[in-house]
Amino acid sequence: MFVDQAQIYVTAGNGGHGGMSFRREKYVPNGGPDGGNGGRGGNVIVQADNGLRTLLAFKYRKKYKAESGGNGTGGRSTGKSGEDLLIKVPVGTVVKDKTTGRILCDLSEDGESCIVAQGGRGGLGNMNFSTSTRQAPRFAQGGVKGQERTLVLELKLLADVGLLGFPNVGKSTFLSMVTAAKPKIANYHFTTIVPNLGVVAWKDYDPFVIADIPGIIEGAHEGTGLGIQFLRHVERTKLLIHMLDASGSEGRDPLADFKAINEELKEYNERLAQRMQVVALNKTDLIADPEELELLVSEFEAMGYEVFPISAATGKGIDALLSRVIQLLDEIGEVEPIFEVEADEDVVYKADFDEEPFTVHKDGNVYVVEGDFERLINSVNFEDFDSIGYFQRVLKDKGIFKKLEEMGIQDEDTVRLQDIEFEYFK
Fold first, then answer.
1. Residue 115 burial by CB count (10 A; 0-12/13-18/19+): exposed, middle or buried?
2. What's the rounded mean pLDDT across residues 369-373?
3. What is the pLDDT at residue 180?
4. Which residues contact 223 (CB under 8 A, 6 or more apart)?
5. Any binding-site annotation on 208?
6. Is residue 297 over pLDDT 60?
7. Are 224 and 218 in contact (CB under 8 A)?
8. Is 33 marked within a binding site?
């Protein structure tokens, strides 16, 4: 089953908590603090793999979590770093952040990878908080939570040539003639419901990959029919073969069809519409009047396009078309991508608690402070005076006390911060 889009939820590993311990040996009864730092949480990494062809596996498994870092221990021992989680996807996968819509990475080569969620930093052990006036700190820093995000995976076929055209113009027949692909062929619309991919090994030339792109009709860029699902597959192509039914066997006007599809490409992406195109006028075996074909060819040539009359059913004209396509691919070389991969600044964590957002509201007589304070609470030993002093300094530096005072808090009023309640004193 061909699946070209999936959504997954990834969570990087949390950083380990810093250790809170003191050196205790037989002949060192009053040793100093020796709690080690917490280990780094594992990253979530997406990597392209040539052995995969579809995103089907992600339809059954939706959540992925990297390993968290180990806690610091005595003897200044740093906790073990969490193992990175490697998620393999097919070559040609584009990874997007669902919330922002930004492209995080475009994995177009085998083995190419990117970090999509960074593991949290480990917290500092109590050995880091020892000073000349505080020689026995009884608190340590909590680890940072790993990054979480919902990803959208989109597979874009890595084809050199895209085969465009309305349904039933003979694209699948053409593909079956020039490649080993076995597309379903029948005389009704929307025969092809998935992109067909094949390798063209023509004579002694270097082989190239061609993709039959189905579902492009009027309104495709707005999601009509199957258009949006398939337009993404023509984004990487160097050259487009635009196939038309020159015979008008179904009452269609090939010139009007050509303009309609190009308008869809332009609406979808301006740069995609600028890709080089050659015109393949198919079903010429059904045209009785040669002058009718000559007139049609001259109309396209007047628009600046190279035109190749062919018959996919009989093979007529295919040799000339493929020979020219191979020559053009060599001349075109590499092409610029039509979309930009955006730098993801969100994977860089904030330096400390003072940059974390918070809100304050009253619940009856209790002032409730809301925000992400898990790391701060994990850093505090509420039975130790120095640790409580550290807790108060963080709240002050963060501006929480100032906000409470603006709201009219008085001494002995109750403040709730997650599961912690304490009385306020100025």
1. middle
2. 83
3. 64
4. none
5. no
6. yes
7. yes
8. no
* 389 annotated as a binding-site residue: no
Cα torsion at 301, 305, 310, 312 (round to 10°)? -150
Residue 192 is labelled as binding a ligand: yes
Separation between Cα atoms, residue 13 and residue 81, nearest integer Å? 9
- Residue 172 labelled as part of a binding site: yes
Give CA–CA dist 180/172, Å, rounded.
12
Residue 44's pLDDT is: 96
Calculated CA dihedral for residues 176, 304, 255, 216, nearest 10 degrees: 50
Single-letter amino acid, residue 64: Y
Instruction: Calculate the alpha carbon distances from 117 to 39, 120, 344 in Å.
Output: 17, 9, 10
315 is annotated as contributing to ligand binding: no
CB 302 within 8 A of CB 330: no
The more confidently predicted of residues 380 and 60 is 60
Place of tokens 């120095």: 386
β-pairing verdict for 148-155 and 5-11: antiparallel
Q: What distance in Å separates the CA atoms of residue 108 and residue 198, rounded to the nearest whole number?
A: 18
In the chain, DSSP finds a helix count (H) and a strand count (E) of: 9, 18
Structure tokens at 66: 């990297």
Annotation-wise, does 220 bind a ligand? no
- Angle (CA) 186 198 330, round 5°: 130
Question: Is 29 part of any known ligand binding site?
Answer: no
Question: Which pLDDT score is estimated for 290?
Answer: 87
Report the distance separating Cα 400 and Cα 54, nearest Å.
Answer: 50
pLDDT digits (tens, 9 = 90+) for 122-156: 988 888 888 777 777 877 888 888 999 999 998 87
| Beta strand extents in 156-232 (DSSP E only) | 161-164, 196-200, 208-212
Report the amino acid identity of residue 273: A
Place of tokens 């968290």: 68
Secondary structure element (H or E) that encloses residue 263, with its range: helix 254-268
**Mean pLDDT throughout 213-219?**
55
46 assigned binding-site residue: no
Residue 173 marked ligand-binding = no
Supply the pLDDT for residue 115: 94
**How is residue 84 annotated by DSSP?**
P
Q: Is 106 annotated as a binding residue?
A: no
The pLDDT of residue 29 = 64
- Asked whether residue 137 is marked as a ligand-binding residue, the answer is no
* Residue 169 labeled ligand binder: yes
Entry pTM: 0.63
- The domains located in the chain, with CATH, are 5-155 (2.70.210.12), 161-332 (3.40.50.300), 356-423 (3.30.300.350)
